[in-house]
Design goal:
Elements (H helix, E strand, L loop, with lengths): L1 H27 L14 H73 L4 E4 L3 E9 L4 E9 L5 E5 L10 H8 L3 E4 L3 E4 L2 E4 L4 E2 L2 E2 L11 E6 L4 E4 L4 H5 L3 E7 L2 E4 L2 E2 L4 H4 L7 E6 L5 E6 L12 H10 L5 E4 L7 E3 L2 E2 L13 E5 L2
Length: about 350
């Protein structure tokens, strides 16, 4: 065992001899390692390099300023062009709108010319309403031509805002702050209350359900597009399809597509002459309301339904509907009662059409 260790030590000593000899040689030999000067540039060279870098940066900044100035000029030019284009487009739109509205303006002049000169005008962003006095052979009548510009320019209200309630059209106009108003549909009395006749819609809801058209009844009202809709409806689906906002019922239909309809014999003499209220529309969507005076409901004065048809045709109406008449006929304009109620005073009614400025 001892011999083996000694042999191993000798072997290791022999193996390390070359390295020990090299170490001793380095220690006694004067050897230096010299790096070339090119690796370490002189101070002047370093300054020149920094100056070149600064010059390069300054040149880049100048170039950036020039680019920014050019970009700014380009943006200003594009903005000017954009504004000019907008102005040109606005002018084109205005011209096109004026050209598109020209037929409507001409049409309005035609129907207005048939009515005569207005005695009063109410104009706002909601509506334009004009009042006319019309003298016929057997009666005095009044007309309102109304252009609705807003969805809230016209509405129907219940008397005192409740089913079975009743108030005059003037009271309803004052209570709601309306600028004009007329009586609406027919009514039936019961239990000391006054109820709307047949199908009545208020704020898109049926007041007392849907009642299919019977006999000579019809429904008339306004839809969500401020268009007059009316006629006879045998099913609720038919009426729902029209998206009605409000409306009332009475008898009979007077005009369809500009042509007079046959007046049922019952209504030709019940009574023959009487105060009347009718509502109609024009091709451009404007409304026409005519209220005719009569001193009494006995048939000795006032207008016949045939005469109301003649007036509607003369004034260029498309569809026309007879609203409640007699003592119910009421026309309010700017807080004044325009017609002469045949009862000597305004009648309390369950429904009213109101107009707002």
């Amino acid at each position: 065992m001892t011999l083996s260790i000694r042999a191993l030590n000798r072997t290791m000593l022999l193996a390390c001899t070359p390295f020990v000899a090299m170490l001793l040689w380095l220690m006694v030999t004067n050897i230096s390692i010299v790096l070339p000067d090119s690796i370490f540039p002189e101070a002047g060279t370093r300054q020149e390099t920094a100056a070149d870098h600064t010059k390069s940066v300054a040149s880049g900044l100048d170039q950036a300023r020039q680019t920014a100035a050019a970009t700014s000029a380009s943006i200003k030019k594009q903005l000017k062009l954009y504004n000019q284009t907008n102005a040109d487009m606005k002018q084109i739109v205005n011209t096109a709108t004026a050209q598109a509205n020209r037929p409507l303006v001409i049409y309005d002049r035609i129907i207005t010319g048939r009515l005569g000169s207005p005695s009063g005008t109410i104009s706002s962003d909601k509506l334009t309403a004009q009042l006319y006095y019309i003298k016929a052979d057997n009666f005095q009548s009044y007309a309102m031509k109304i252009k609705l510009k807003s969805g809230d320019a016209m509405k129907m209200v219940l008397g005192n805002d409740k089913v079975g309630g009743a108030e005059t059209t003037l009271a309803a106009v004052q209570r709601y702050g309306a600028v004009a108003g007329v009586n609406a549909g027919g009514f039936a009395d019961g239990g000391g209350k006054r109820y709307p006749l047949s199908t009545t819609i208020l704020n898109g809801d049926y007041v007392e359900g849907f009642e299919p058209t019977r006999a000579d009844l019809f429904f008339v009202g306004l839809n969500a597009s401020n268009k007059l809709v009316g006629g006879k409806f045998t099913s609720k689906q038919q009426l729902d399809h029209l998206n009605v906002k409000f409306g009332a019922s009475f008898v009979p239909v007077l005009l369809k597509n500009g042509r007079p309809t046959a007046i049922p014999s019952k209504w030709q003499s019940s009574p023959t002459r009487a105060p009347r209220t009718v509502i109609a529309n024009y091709k451009d969507g404007q409304l026409l309301i005519i209220v005719a005076d009569g001193r009494n409901e006995g048939g000795s004065s006032g207008a016949t339904l045939a005469e109301m048809q003649i007036l509607l045709q003369r004034f260029g109406a498309v569809d026309g509907y007879n609203l409640d008449g007699g003592g119910s006929s009421s026309l309010i304009w700017n807080g004044r009662v325009i017609n002469k109620p045949s009862d000597g005073q305004l009648r309390k009614l369950p429904t009213h059409f109101l107009f707002f400025k």
